[in-house]
């Protein structure tokens, strides 16, 4: 079976409660499900990066990293993700942005704690709204159209939401405030006007294995560092340093509820051991940038900070003169 047909077959089976060996294995790994929306306060850190007219390599995830970057003027975007459904979801969101107003967009895509806390959205992926976006989706990316058309028309829609997507979705305040394009109608309209021109490159692979033959101005590793030993992240940064342009910035890790003096708790991921992390990354002299955290948004408390650990490549490579 061709790769796309296999993906669709497995996804469709999953929505019917049938798991073959491969898709069952997929569900056991952490990243077998799509993130419906970002779990990071992207609006909190995005202005630290220079995206206007520059390039970005990012994880795909909810597509929100890419969509917010487009809003900030980034046109050259590469999305690399181990999750094979990433491209389909990017185009579904793009077709939604092109055809919906912001309220409709939320009604179609939001699920957890929507429209109000303690509710789940019974209208998620409603076929009435899907009908509004599907001709654009078909033109944007035919595989994405086939994928969602098959799932939405043949399965219970909440079941699709729960099988293909993770339950990790914030409340209204968290989701809206973390995404610049969802903060207000003007930003949403601005994205609507530019998104059609953007054609990201999609790579379904593992950051730890993939080899590039180009460079980027910005690289975002999201919070993948939470799932790997910090020494492995250091090796990853060593490798991606070669793919980073001079004056470019690399987001080594997103860190929840973290300030420079936050004391490490042994039950947390190793990357949160800041003393060790700064020691391992000393060659890169990274900066810890704070902003209102996800929990801070939820609790309306700006003192609860998240952080991004960022390496700025400022040294030009030494010029080697041949004799
Ligand atoms: C770390 S997860 C967390 C979600 C994130 N905090 C957000 O706001 O969207 C982000 C994405 O990284 C992807 N991912 C994790 N490890 C990866 C790897 N080694 N290579 C490529 N993608 C990876 C997952 O599939 C997921 O889509």
- Strands across the major sheet, in which order? 3-2-1-4-5-7-6
Provide the gyration radius in Å. Answer: 20 Å
Structural class: alpha/beta
| Helix share, percent | 40-55%
Number of strands: 7
Percent of residues in beta strands?
Answer: 5-15%
Encode the helix/strand succession as letters.
HHHEHEHHHHHHHHEEHEHEHE
Bound molecules: S-adenosylmethionine
The total count of helices amounts to 15
**Unreliable runs, pLDDT <50, ≥5 residues?**
318-323
Principal-axes shape call: globular
Distance between the termini: 57 Å
Describe the protein in words.
There is one protein chain. This protein is an alpha/beta fold and 323 residues long. The protein folds into 2 domains: 3-202, no CATH class; 206-312, 3-Layer(aba) Sandwich (Rossmann fold). The chain contains 15 helices and 7 strands. It has helices at residues 3-15, 21-28, 42-45, 64-71, 86-99, 102-109, 127-140, 142-154, 157-164, 172-178, 180-183, 185-195, 230-241, 274-280, 294-299; strands at 55-58, 76-81, 201-204, 216-220, 244-255, 287-292, 305-312. The protein has a 7-stranded mixed β-sheet with strand order 3-2-1-4-5-7-6. Helix 1 runs parallel beside helix 8. The longest helix is centred in the first third of the chain and has 14 residues, at 86-99. It is globular and about 55 Å long. The termini are far apart. The structure holds S-adenosylmethionine. S-adenosylmethionine (SAM) binds at residues 31, 35, 38-40, 59-62, 80-83, 206-208, 222-224.
